[in-house]
Amino acid sequence: MLFCAWEKGSGFMNGLKSFWGDQNFANVSNGIIDGLAFGIIAIPLIQKAASSANLAPELLNSWLVTVYVGGGIISLIMALYYKLPIVGAWSIPGAFALAQVMGNFTFNETVGGFLTAGLIVFLLGITGTIKQLVRRIPTQIMMAMVAGTLFGWASKLIGAFKTAPVISFVGLLGYVVCKRFLKKIPAVVGTMVFTLIAAFVMGKLQFTGLDFGVAKPVFILPAFNGAACLSIGVPLALLVVCAENMQAIGVQIAIGKKPPVNGMTIISGIGGLIAPFFGGHNCNIAGPMTAWAGSEDCGPVDKRYVAAVWCGIIFAITGIFAPLTMSVLGMLPGEATTVIIGLTLVSMIIGGLEESFGSGKFKFGSFASFAVAMSGIVVLQIGSAFWALVVGTAISLLLEKKDYDEMKSPLD
After folding, report:
1. What pTM, to 2 d.p., does this model score?
2. Which DSSP helix (H) or strand (E) runs through 119?
3. 258 CB neighbour count, 10 Å cutoff
4. For residues 143 and 410, what is the distance between their CA atoms, to the nearest angstrom?
5. Which of 21, 288, 363, 385 has the most CB atoms less than 10 A away?
6. pLDDT per residue over 9-40, tens digit each?
7. H or E segment and range at residue 14
8. What residues contact residue 378 under an 8 Å CB cut-off, 6+ apart?
9. Please, are residues 249 and 264 in contact by the beta-carbon 8 Å criterion?
10. d(CA 125, CA 265)
11. For 53-64, what is each residue's pLDDT tens digit?
């Protein structure tokens, strides 16, 4: 069944043979920047989730190296086998959804929730039902949940401007400069550089030494708790499928390629079945990073897969040396990290709100989903991400039946 569902590509060895000859400055440089930028920027996001559960440093290191190396491996497999710009990583919205509920469970139970998500995604892929599922879940309600989940974290930006106005303003200035004038450099990289300079000039860098150690995986035995499986497993699985994979699928369609929908889902499921045993919440197709690798900046369409390969390599290296990256980021004041995280989430929140309310459909369900997710409410030990989907869908079924009848899948 696995091989029947998996779409045939040009072949891994074929992709490997053509890889060296297809390299050019555009796809190599952008691939490296893609992996480095997202790799560095995203580490504090997992740190935040881990801190909510008071995880020991060795567990945090294991989580990081697992999802980073796993994501890199997925990039190599998919990009070379299909010769398409498909990048693997992990779910950023998933990490924030986890931060809301991880404190309610032991880490072993949390890992059981991770494993549940991986199993759901894997089954959706091998059975080929992923397309049917996507046709039944309104994208608007899903993306409203994503925006609501992230909104609370981004709103902490206001507090940072109050307690550290100079550093926060300089960080925002770096974001604006890159967004407006240096468009090939990720805006949040500008924020990071500017806040680092500001903190140095103001004497607020905390020189505690650099950790040149290598992150090592630690085996974690999962424990299964019904509330954890619902609160963590179901929302995480839906985020992987409907937020990450669907964006990556859209990128392939936009550049005129036929996306391997089942293959992308299956490998995300495999990543979700392996990563939890080492503390990782999932290794899956990455929507934003795939969008970068598939962009015009990466050169000719048929050679953009090279950017995905390099992105995967750099992403994996970032995870292996996660202690070094964390020690560098640890030099910054807490407000600087808050500004970096908040501005990282801005584009995701805006994108989520655009998809939720831009079409004019599922407005009531989307608003309910957004409001519930933003509230951070926990009922029966089940976090707000799950309830946002339940409440949003129920309200749309009651009030917006016409929208359901007219709903079109992104795969149609």
Report:
1. 0.74
2. helix 107-126
3. 11
4. 14
5. 385
6. 889 999 999 999 999 888 888 788 778 777 87
7. helix 12-19
8. 100, 101, 104, 231, 384
9. yes
10. 5
11. 888 999 999 999
